[in-house]
Amino acid sequence: MLTMLSYSFVQLYTFFLSFRWLFCKDTVFYINTLLPVGPALAGRVIGKRVVYHYHENAFAKGAFYKILAVMMQKLAHEIICVSRYQASFLKRTHGVAVVPNALPKEFTDRLIYAPDAAFARKTVLMLSSLKDYKGTREFIQLSQRLSEYKFVLVINDTQENIDKWLADNDFSNVGGHLTIWSRQENVAPFYNSASLVLNLSDRHKFIETFGLTPLEAMSAGLPVIVPTVGGIAEMVEDDVNGYKIDVQNLNAIEGRIRQIFEDEELYSKLSDNAILYSARYNPEDTLDKIIYILSEMDKADK
User: Fold this and answer.
1) Was domain 105-278 assigned CATH 3.20.20.120?
2) Has this prediction a pTM greater than 0.70?
3) Phi and psi based region of residue 128 (left: phi greater than 0; alpha: psi -120 to 50; beta: remaining)
4) Looking at the domain 10-102+282-301, which fold is it?
5) Residue 294 has pLDDT above 90, yes or no
């Protein structure tokens, strides 16, 4: 209740704060998440264009987020979705655009494309969290099955919480070929030291609207294995730049890892295509598309 009261106060405050732009011409209210419904409503009241950049999938969350999604569809002049999958849940079809996310150049400039060296490393990387649906437990199980390869797991949490989770799940004595890191400020070196990147999100508990870690991996020329559903699946073509396999099928994932690491020609093809696919998600194109959407709205007003 305290959280809801705080949220309601912030919405009321930002609703009235938004009236400072009442007499400003050529003003667009650009809202980068579902939560700020107060400014969106104010924008409508004072006759401004309202754009939602919609990143989360409200329909996979609780009733509160679903209500916010309904309000977004009522209030927004334009909704920018990050994937076709995400857009498919919206009831409205007009004023909906799909603009995939992109990585900042400052990050991609730190990535090293070296497929021969990457193939020789035979290292599997996953960036995850301690949430059950993220597949951390299954990644450790894969490392136990494939002890001939190196496994690196970067968990977005503190070392204290990681140690407790490992003990609670009877993973205290993981093999020496598996290295587990706590939260990192700079993940580029991990991609530069990997050969293959996994995303093991459980599609029955959580579906990715977009795949940031696969995009980071492909930008370094690394093949990926991702779930079969969601915006993340739109980024991968089987046997082209990676594979789509659900976490429930660990045997298939294990088999693919072996196949990729035992066939240098296959690895080279997947790596080359990963770089080509990552080029589709560049920040210049993303910015140009958003600017185009805003400029078209401006023309419509005039």
Assistant:
1) no
2) yes
3) beta
4) Rossmann fold (3.40.50)
5) no
